[in-house]
Design a protein that fits this description.
Structural class: alpha/beta
Order of helices and strands: EEEEHEHEHEHEHHEEHEEEH
Shape: globular
Distance between the termini: 18 Å
Number of strands: 13
Number of helices: 8
Strand content: 15-25%
CATH superfamily of the largest domain: Dihydrodipicolinate Reductase, domain 2
Oligomer: single chain
Number of domains: 2
Strand order of the largest sheet: 9-8-10-13-12-11
Length: 317
């Protein structure tokens, strides 16, 4: 909602929910009452409808709003891999999707990686590959995740046992290499790992790009971080990427001042991401195999919200 407040094209905002009807939320200095999502909502024919959570809800209601003439932007996972639904997120993706009434927004991890590495991977190469380690904060599980880390930390520091309700294992002072559900596929990947791979391939139009990914839940409140390495087929990739990202590449900020300069290093860190939709990137360097390595971090909620609003209002990213 905060992304919509400053937009001039938004004259009226209606909040809809199947379960939270009657709840009040602030918007532009006043409180909006959440209305019930039902067939009457569809008949109202709103200009733009955003589905912010719940794949089942989006699958059920999005086609109805589209049939009524509304534009729909789906932030859930319901339509991200549907070949008939444009997946927005990269520069020019909104215009490329034309007059499509239904658009899908990628997950934050794949969206951030796609924007950072677009200068290297959008052209494709037979030898290209990508390795990713995703460091997912507890806020990815919503308010319940934030409260669990806070309560567990306080309990352990106070000499009391820490109870786990939201996560499969204790998260305070720990790392949990399971994000997005249990690893149920034959390859042993979790839901987030599978979606990251599939969405990136779709965003770059590289359906067979080898991508290895591991997602780890970390005891950090906010800031989705990732370690990315690989090869684009260009031995000069690190230098080319630094140059491209240093020229205000869409939605990316380069923070890569080396400690060798005698000044404190300026690095992308989760504490710098809050309230900024840009992906912060640094530590860009070569690896011993002729590829690249880097570190990136982003406010996941802000990134996805900015992308969704831009898609809904027809703005460039």
């Amino acid at each position: 909602m905060t992304e919509l407040e400053p937009r001039r094209g938004v004259d009226r905002l209606v909040l809809l929910s199947e379960k939270a009807g009657g709840t009040e939320l602030p918007f532009r200095g006043s409180d909006l009452v959440v209305e019930e999502l039902d067939e009457d909502s569809v008949k109202e024919r709103p200009d733009v409808v955003f589905f912010t959570s719940g794949a089942a809800r989006a699958k059920r209601w999005a086609p109805r709003f589209v049939a009524a003439g509304s534009r729909v932007v789906d932030l859930s996972s319901a339509h991200r891999l549907d070949p008939n639904v444009p997946l927005v997120g990269l520069a020019g993706a909104v215009s490329a999707s034309g007059n499509a009434k239904l658009k899908a927004v990628p997950g934050a991890a794949s969206l951030a990686a796609a924007r950072v590495l677009a200068p290297l991977f959008t052209k494709g190469s037979p030898s290209a590959r990508l390795d990713a380690t995703l460091l997912v904060p507890v806020s990815g599980a919503g308010q319940a995740g934030v409260l669990e880390l806070s309560r567990q930390t306080a309990a352990l520091l106070g000499g009391r046992p820490a109870r786990s309700r939201t996560f499969s294992h204790r998260i305070a002072f720990n790392l949990v290499p399971e994000v997005g559900g249990e690893a149920t596929s034959t390859a042993g990947d979790t839901g987030l790992e599978r979606s990251f791979r599939a969405e990136l391939r779709r965003l770059w139009s590289l359906p067979i790009l080898p991508i290895a990914v591991t997602a780890v839940r970390v005891p950090v409140f906010f800031g989705l971080s990732m370690v990315l390495s690989g090869s684009s087929g260009d031995p000069q990739a690190p230098a080319a990427l630094s140059k491209a990202l240093g020229s205000d590449h869409g939605g990316v900020k380069l923070l890569d001042r080396s400690w060798h300069s005698g000044q404190p290093g300026a690095f992308p860190m989760p504490l710098l991401t809050v309230g900024d939709s840009s992906v912060l990137v640094g530590r860009i360097r070569s690896d011993e195999g002729g590829g690249f390595q880097l570190f990136a971090t982003v406010d996941a909620l802000k990134l996805v919200a900015e992308c969704a609003v831009s898609a809904g209002l027809g703005e460039a990213h």
